[in-house]
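For reproducibility, we list the full input for the manganese (II) ion complex.
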Amino acid sequence: MASVGWAGHDLASSSALGRLSSGMDICESSSGSLERVGVVHRVTGETNVSVRLDLDGTGECAVATGVAFLDHMLHQLSSHGLLDLEIKASGDTHIDDHHTNEDVGIAVGQALSQALGQRIGITRFGHFVAPLDEALVQVALDCSGRPHLSYGLEIPSQRIGTYDTELVKEFFVAVVNNSGLTLHIRHLDGTNSHHIVEACFKAFARALRMATEVDPRRVGSIPSSKGVLEQAGVQG
Ligand SMILES: [Mn+2]
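The corresponding predicted structure, in tokenized form, follows.
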């Protein structure tokens, strides 16, 4: 398999940013190991978002979206999902956080789909129940290629810091539609809004880690009785 040169590039470099528009799914590194990395650079009239996501990381995280609470949640995703995650975003946050939040979700979803490629050898399903003090949130997901979100959080307060809690659902809608995840989120307990949302991201992270782990018994096959899983959000 041909080597693709995105692994290890420097997101902070403006010259690198100009070359981020093409992604990759599985490539061979110089060491010969298969890498599962997705890279997205998405520019609209509202936002400019760069994402690099490595499914086989160690939880290294460098995110700066301009939306502080979203950064805090993306750190949970990286840390508990053991994803290496680099995200830089700028957007029209002088209006509100809506476009930036959504477009980061879109780019993360696209990067995830690229990194998964044909979903060869993965466990495919994942689930986790995460407690955070009084909050308890359950996530079940399937890297099915069929976007679906069942969103069950009931968040008591309108805002966490400056972050509008309506945007939690918008973030997951964007991730699901651009990664082809089937995602179910259940709010089992909890009353503190920060705890509820953070428990949700932790559960999502652990469920995603489970689903994207390579299953040694799959030995390179696609985990579907149909023999194929759609790759949502992959351009070209
Ligand atoms: Mn927190």
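Residues 193-212 form the longest helix (20 residues). The first strand starts at residue 26 and ends at 28. Both points were considered when choosing residues for closer inspection.
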